[in-house]
Write a structure and sequence with these properties.
The structure holds two protein chains of two kinds. By secondary structure, chain A is of the alpha+beta class. Helix content of chain A is about 30%, strand content about 25%. In chain A, the strands form five sheets. In chain A, strands 8, 11, 14, 16, 17, 18 and 19 form a seven-stranded mixed beta sheet that branches. A five-stranded mixed beta sheet of chain A has the order 6-1-3-4-15. Chain A has a three-stranded antiparallel beta sheet with strand order 2-5-7, with no helix packed on it. Classes of the chains: A alpha+beta, B alpha/beta.
């Protein structure tokens, strides 16, 4: 059972998406686990073959419990029992030729696609169940409508168990634990910088005029890219504080705080944000928001973040000073873009201005470096076309 | 009333002969011998040689004579000894009886009833024991019925006689000695299939003597917690698809038990129609339990092995449920 956040102690296995014998590739989603953050998809991190499932759907187990055994693909499977050779036919026995009535006796090879009965397919459509996640009990392992109904029920049951109001209560508890820990353990310092967003807005407008509606950008995309790029200059803000020492992040994985409908929030990561272009970042953030609200986030997205951003500008907030999500060491907050009188080259102009804040862990960095980080963001946003 | 299938058939014949002077019985050995399966025993004495007529051993002749009599306003009941022998009269049945209404532009109809024995199980070997009723069910213009119960043996004949078009009644030869209690002597419909055992897990469709093998399989399966619904088709043409599809939509699984061979069979027709109409209700491939594709063997153990049996029906049902 992977830890899907510093505050997670246990999880309930909802469903296996792979069966013993299935080949696994790094990145495959093999199971769904229900946590206080909702149902999370669990990925594997190495190639191999699913040897054995240890924990059954419905079981709640502590973090660290073995869920399944994965055999390295290079190690041979446990030897199958030797096939007994056919005994030699005694010469006295005349073998009787078997009469094969018609073609029915030899089953046609499977077409290599998912085996689900027509009724199961119809039912799955009605219930919104993904057949790839259902274990079949019908002839030749085919998925039947009853399997689909069972799968639908198990998901709803698990969700209900930790369910609607209780789920929110669970998430509340999780947020409470993480934030209390942050305020208890992390000596925060807070910085704020107001940034002239004129160049960024002009660039965004021009860029969007060239793009089809579906590919248009929101301001969050260049902001994300600016944070990611600035973090390369200030690596001490990007990583984790664990056991009294700072561990720099292996990549720039930016957690995006996403408010969930009905309350609570999650902060899944956009991986390697510094190495992706603005369009890719836009797509990934949209995808994360949609999946966070649909409750289908992946385990790595919940555990890998090396820094978090929060954007409360849409709510009209001028500046937000967030609480760091442990064991991360920094959090960047974006306020709203607001037209203000602004001095540009000695004259007062009306400019769109945004306040960017940094909450940082003083154990890992100092205010001096934090200030450089915010200025770097400012500098980068003045040349958005270079992002 | 305690009775047998044979007595129920005879009682139906007697009632028809008594009620309608246009009705007469004709066939090989139906008179003096009392019928190959003793169905018409005693009727010659009761109704006389005008109405219980022995015929020469020529199926084409006496079936043709029956068609002529029907055209002439009579209500003939023709007995053909077995379905195998009826092949000699195929021309009369398929080319004449089934088509005259159509060929005459509706001016003539053939209110003819042909009774014949069908099926295996009594060691009568390959020339007396085949199940070819599915062939007849292929032909537009005739109705094919298969009484499996005492009620149907007693009640189908009169309804068939009232039909203005030819009706073929197939009596499975293992049923003649079947005993039981018969409540009510009235005519029964020949349009609808009957659910002989309601169940929820698999719809098993059958007819004739295989109804009883299927019900035996149902008992075996019930002990394993499998609850099958057994449909007795009763009428093979036209098929009552309403009853079949309604049941399959409930159980989502179907098996067909048919003593005919699989290839080009009635079981194939039923399976195809289920797939055509209820594909999205199916949870498993449709199973068929049919006779092995061999001429019916004479030795008892081989004959048993060739035919659908309760255990093979139960096995097929378990496979459909993936409980094999």
């Amino acid at each position: 059972m992977p830890s899907l956040g510093a505050d997670m102690e246990a999880g309930t296995l909802v469903q296996w998406l792979k069966r013993p014998g299935d080949a696994l590739k790094r990145g495959d989603i093999i199971a769904v686990v229900d946590t206080q953050k909702g149902a999370i998809e669990i990925e594997v991190f190495e190639d191999g073959v699913l040897e054995k499932v240890v924990i059954q759907p419905g079981e709640k187990v502590p973090v660290g419990t073995v869920l399944a055994l994965i055999r390295d693909s290079e190690i041979a499977a446990a030897p199958a029992p030797a096939v007994a050779r056919a005994p030699a036919v005694s010469p006295a026995v005349v073998p009787v030729p078997t009469v094969v009535p018609g073609p029915a006796a030899t089953p046609f090879p499977a077409a290599g696609r998912l085996r689900a009965s027509p009724a199961a397919r119809k039912r799955a459509e009605g219930l919104g169940v993904d057949l790839a996640r259902v274990t079949g009990t019908g002839p030749e392992g085919a998925i039947t409508s009853a399997d689909v109904e069972r799968a639908a029920k198990s998901v709803t049951a698990t969700l209900r168990e930790a369910g609607a109001p209780p789920a929110r209560a669970g998430m509340r508890t999780a947020i409470a634990a993480a934030m209390s820990r942050a305020k208890r353990e992390i000596p925060h310092y807070y910085l704020a910088t107001s940034i002239d967003m004129f160049a960024a807005q002009r660039w965004l407008r021009a860029e969007n005029e060239k793009r089809p509606v579906a590919d248009r950008l929101l301001m969050i995309a260049p902001l994300l890219k600016a944070v990611a790029t600035a973090l390369r200059e200030l690596p001490e803000l990007n990583g984790h504080w664990i056991d009294g020492a700072f561990h720099p992040g292996a990549g720039v994985h930016i957690g995006c705080a996403i408010a969930l409908r009905g309350g609570g929030l999650v902060a899944p990561a956009v991986h390697d944000a510094d190495r992706k272009d603005v369009s890719t970042l836009m797509r990934e953030v949209s995808d994360l928001v949609a999946r966070a609200r649909a409750g289908s986030l992946r385990s790595s997205e919940l555990t890998d973040a090396t820094i978090t951003i929060t954007n409360l500008g849409d709510q009209g907030v001028d500046a937000g000073f967030g609480i760091i999500y442990p064991p991360q060491v920094a959090l960047v907050g974006f306020g709203r873009v607001q037209e203000r009188p602004w001095v540009v080259a000695g004259t007062i102009e009306v400019r769109p201005v945004m306040t960017v804040t940094l909450s940082a862990d003083h154990r890992a960095s100092d205010g001096h470096r934090g200030g450089i980080f915010l200025s770097a963001i400012d500098r980068l946003l003045q040349k958005p076309e270079e992002l | 009333m305690k009775t047998t299938y044979r007595e129920a058939l005879r009682s139906a014949l007697r009632e028809a002969l008594a009620k309608d002077p246009r009705v007469f019985l004709m066939g090989e050995d139906v008179g003096r011998y009392g019928g190959t399966y003793a169905v018409s025993k005693g009727l010659l004495a009761e109704f006389g040689p005008e109405r219980i007529r022995d015929t020469p051993l020529s199926e084409s002749t006496f079936v043709g004579a029956g068609i002529g009599a029907a055209l002439g306003g009579m209500r003939p009941i023709v007995e053909v000894m077995t379905v195998n022998f009826s092949l000699l009269a195929l021309d009369q049945i398929v080319n004449n009886a089934a088509t005259i209404r159509h060929m005459s532009g509706g001016q003539f109809s053939i209110p003819l009833v042909i009774r014949m024995a069908t099926g295996a199980g009594r060691q009568l070997a390959a020339q007396h024991a085949h199940s070819l009723e599915g062939w007849y069910a292929h032909i537009p213009g005739i109705r094919v019925v298969t009484p499996a119960t005492l009620e149907d043996a007693r009640g189908m004949l009169w309804t068939a006689l009232e039909d203005p078009d030819p009706v073929l009644i197939f009596e499975h030869q293992t049923l003649y000695n079947m005993e039981g209690t018969l409540d009510g002597e009235g005519p029964v419909d020949i349009d609808r299939a009957a659910i002989r055992r309601p169940g929820k897990d698999v719809t098993v469709i059958t007819y004739g003597a295989n109804l009883w093998k299927t019900l035996e399989a149902a008992e075996m399966l019930a002990r394993e917690g499998i609850d099958i619904e057994v449909i007795d088709l009763r009428t093979l043409r036209p098929l009552d698809m309403t009853t079949i599809i309604g049941s399959v939509q409930k159980t989502r699984r179907a098996a067909v038990v048919d003593e005919g061979w699989k290839s080009g069979s009635l079981s194939a027709e039923i399976a195809a129609r289920i797939v055509e109409t209820a594909f999205y209700d199916l949870d498993a491939p449709i199973a068929r339990v049919c006779t092995a594709e061999v001429p019916i063997p004479y030795p008892k153990h081989l004959e048993d092995a060739a035919l659908p049996q309760p255990h093979s029906i139960a096995t097929a049902v378990r496979q459909v449920l993936a409980r094999a």
